[in-house]
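Shipment paperwork, digital attachment
Item: protein structure file
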Amino acid sequence: MSEDAFDSLYRRWYQALVAKAYLAARGRRDVAEDAVQHAFEQCWRRMNDPAGPPVEHWDRWLKKVTVHEALNRSKKKEVVFDLGHHDSAVNLLDLAVEVQLKEVYRRVCEEMAGLRERPRRAMALRCIAGLSTAEVAQEMGITQSTVRVYLAEARTVLEPLRLELRQLGIVTEGEGEHRG
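Attachment content:
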C-alpha cells in the first residue's frame, strides 16, 4: 500500500483514535497517544507486509489495536485522571464547540475512569474498539454471558451520556447500543 494511503488513514483516524484510547486509558493522555502511535506503527508494518492477510476495514482494525494497547498500557502505569489535558484528545473545530463539549468530555472520562477494571475493559473493547461480544469474551478469557453482565454494569453508568458521546465523535450512530 502506498504512503498516500497510509497518510490518508492517519489524517482521517488519528484524532478519533486518540479520543477512544483516552477513554480506555482512564484519562491518561500519554497512554492514549502511545497506544495510537503503536497502532499506526503496526498499521504501517501490516500494509507493507505482502505475505500478511489483507485488512478489509482499516478503521475497525485500528480501533481494535489502539484500544487493546491503551487497556494494556493503562494497567502497567499508575493511572490518575488528568483534568488539565482532558480535551486535547478531541478534534474540536472552534472555541464555541470546545466550551460546549468540555464539561461533557470531562464527565465521560470521569465516569469511564470510575468503572471497575473488568466492566471498563469490556466496554472499551466492545463499544470503543468495536469488537463483537464473542471477540471480547475471547480477549478477556471469559464467557459471552459474563461480557454481557460487565457491559450492563458499564451501560448503567454511561447510558445517560451516550448522546453526548456521539456529539464528541467518540461513539458513532448505533455504536455502543445494546443489541439484544
